[in-house]
Amino acid sequence: MSHIVNKQRNILDFALSSLLRRKGRNLALVTVYTLVVFALASVMFFTQALKKEAALVLGATPELIVQKMVAGRHDLIPLSYIDQIKKIRGVAAVTPRLWGYYYDPLIRANYTLLVNDTYPLPEKTIAVGAGIARVRNAHRGSKINFFAYDGKPVVLQVRGILSEESELLSSDLILISAADFRRLFGIPAGYATDLTVQVRNQKEIATVAAKIQQFLPDTRPILRDEIMRTYEAVFDWRAGIVIVVLLGALLAFLIFAWDKAAGLSAEERREIGILKAIGWETADVLQLKFWEGLSVSLTAFLLGIILAYIHIFLAAAPLFATVIKGWSILYPNFRLTPFVSFSQIAVLFFFTVAPYTVATIIPSWRAATIDPDQVMRT
Amino acid sequence: MIELRHIRKVFNAGQPNEHVAVDDVNLAIGTGKVTVLRGPSGSGKTTLLTVLGCMARPTSGRILLQDREVTSLPARFLTAIRRKTFGFIFQQYNLIQGISVIENVMLPAYPNGDSLPALKQRAEKLLDLFNLRPKASARVEWLSGGEAQRTAIARALVNDPQVIIADEPTAHLDTKLSRELMEIVKEFKAQGKTIVIASHDPIVHDSPVIDKVVDMRDGRLIHSGAA
C-alpha cells in the first residue's frame, strides 16, 4: 500500500516541478481558468442565493392572496368581500392584511410596514428589523418619528428588535399596530391592503382562486406557487443573460485550454520518450499527465470558487448586482445569506476540471505509446 | 549473462524503405565483463543495444537474460526488467531540461515506489561519487558537457542496475574527460557490473578495462574476440 502511495507521491512531485518549469504558460492558464470558474460560480452562487432568499420570504406568505384591482392596479379591498369569499366551498378562513412601504428620507430607504396578528403590539409601539435598528441607531425604548399621509408627525416607540432569520426578510421590516398603520397611511376602517385565504384541501387552491375571480371580478387571486415560479423564472432569465455575455469568454477559454492541454510540444514528446527509455511505463506517464492536469484545473477551480464566494457573499456582488438584482422586492442595504449547493459545485467541477484533465491525458497517451528506443535515435 | 540468439531487427518491414538494421546476431555477454560494440555509423550498434537492453523487441531471434527468455514478455514486464536490470547512458545524455540535477538522477526510480527521502539519499550518494553534490539543485541546462555526462551516468545507476548500457558515451567529450569516463567504467567493473558500450572511439576500445570487442558492419557481427 505504502508502495503505491509513495509512487503516486513521487509522480505528483515530478508533475509539480514539471509545471513549475513552464511557469509563464501555466500561470497564464491558471489565471484564465480561474477567471472562468469565478465568473460561472459567481452567477451560480448569486442566482441560487437569490432564489433561496425569495423562497424564504415567500415560504412565509399565504398560499392564496386576493387583491382588489382598479384600472389594472392594486387597490384597497373592502372587508365586506371576506364574507363573500367565505361562502365558497373549501375555504377555511379569510384574513385581512395591512401592509405597505414607507420611504424614510433620512436614510433614503424604504421600510416595509406590516400588521402581524401573531405579533400583537399596543398602539404607539413598533418592532423593527435589525437593518433599521442599525441605520437608525435604535434600541428598545427608542422613539422614531414618522410622517403620516397628511404630513402630521407620528412618534412610535421601539418595543423590540426582530430576530434575523434572513437579512432580506427582516432587515427593513417594521411591525406596527393596525390603528397606527391606518393613522399613518390614512386607510379607512372597513378596508385592508389585501386578503389571505386558507383553503382546506391544497389541491383545491386553483379551483377556489377561479371561483373568487368569478364571484368578484374586480379582484385578482395570486397563488404562492405562481409567485415562486415567477421569481425563479426571472432569476434564471437574468442569470441566462449573464451567461450569454460570458459565453464569448467561455469559448475563448475552451480554445485556449484545448490548445494548451491537447497540443504536445516536440519537447514534451521527447521528454515522454526519455521517461519511457529510463523505465517508465505508459501508465506511469499517463499518471504524470493526470496529476499535471488535475493540479492546474483543481487549483483554478478552488481559486475560482473561493473568489466567487468572496465576490457574492462578502463583497455583495459588485460585478453582477446591477444585472441580476434589479428587482423591486430587493431592498437597499441588501446582503445575501451565504448559500452553496453542493450539487451545483459538483456540476461545475464536472464541467471544468474533468474535461481539462481528460484533454491533457489523451495526447500524452498517444505519445506514451511510442517505442522507447526512438529516444536513442534523436 | 546475456545471450542473443539469431537476433534480427527490421525497420519498415514489407515497405519499399525496409531496412535490416541487425541481421542474425549471436552474442554472449559475460556477467561482470566490459563489452564494446565497434563499427562505423549505421553498422547496427545502437539498434543492437536497444534490443539487448529490452528497449525494442527484435523482429526475430531470442534474448536470454540469466537464462530467462525475455523476448516474448508483455510490455509491462519488459519495462520493469528494463528499469531494474539496465542503466542507460545515452549519446545525447537525454536529461530533462528545466529540472534540477538531483531530480534528473532520481527520475528512473520514481515508479518503483520508494519513499522520497530514501530516494534522495541514494541520489545524493551518487552525486557525491561523481563530484556533482554542489550542483545538486542546479538546472541541467546550466551544466558543462562533462557534468551533464556524469549526471546521465548517475541517473543510469540510481536503480543499482546489474547491466550498464552506454551508447557512444565519449562522443561529446574531450580526451581528458573520455579517459575519466573509462576510469568510471573500471570502477563499475570492479563492483561486478556488466557493461556494454557502443563506440568507435579508440580511447574506449583500446582501454585495458575492456574484456571483449565485437566488430559490426551492415548489421552483422564480423568479429568477436578478446580485447
How would you sum up this structure in a few lines?
The complex is a heterodimer of chains A (378) and B (227). Helices cover 55% and strands 17% of the residues of chain A.
Instruction: State the domain count of chain B.
Output: 1
Radius of gyration of chain B: 17 Å
Cα-atom radius of gyration of chain A: 31 Å
Q: Poorly predicted ranges of chain A (pLDDT <50, ≥5 residues)?
A: 326-333
Strand-pairing-aware structural class of chain A: alpha+beta
The fold-level CATH name of chain B is Rossmann fold
Indicate the mean pLDDT of chain B. Answer: 90
* Mean pLDDT over all positions of chain A: 83
User: Helical element count of chain B?
Assistant: 7
Ends apart, CA distance between termini of chain B: 18 Å
Description:
The complex is a heterodimer of chains A (378) and B (227). Chain A is of the alpha+beta class. Chain A has two domains: 206 residues, no CATH class; 159 residues, Beta Barrel (Barwin-like endoglucanases). Helices cover 55% and strands 17% of the residues of chain A. Chain A is built from twelve helices and 13 strands. In chain A, the strands form three sheets. A six-stranded mixed beta sheet of chain A has the order 5-6-10-7-9-8. In chain A, strands 1, 2, 4, 12 and 13 form a five-stranded antiparallel beta sheet that branches. In chain A, strands 3-11 form a two-stranded antiparallel sheet. In chain A, strand 8 and strand 9 form a beta hairpin. In chain A, helix 1 packs across helix 10 and helix 2 packs antiparallel against helix 12. The relative contact order of chain A is 0.18. About 2% of the residues of chain A have low confidence. Chain B is of the alpha/beta class and 227 residues long. Chain B is 32% helix and 27% strand. The model of chain B has no long low-confidence stretch (mean pLDDT 90). The chains are: A alpha+beta (378), B alpha/beta (227).
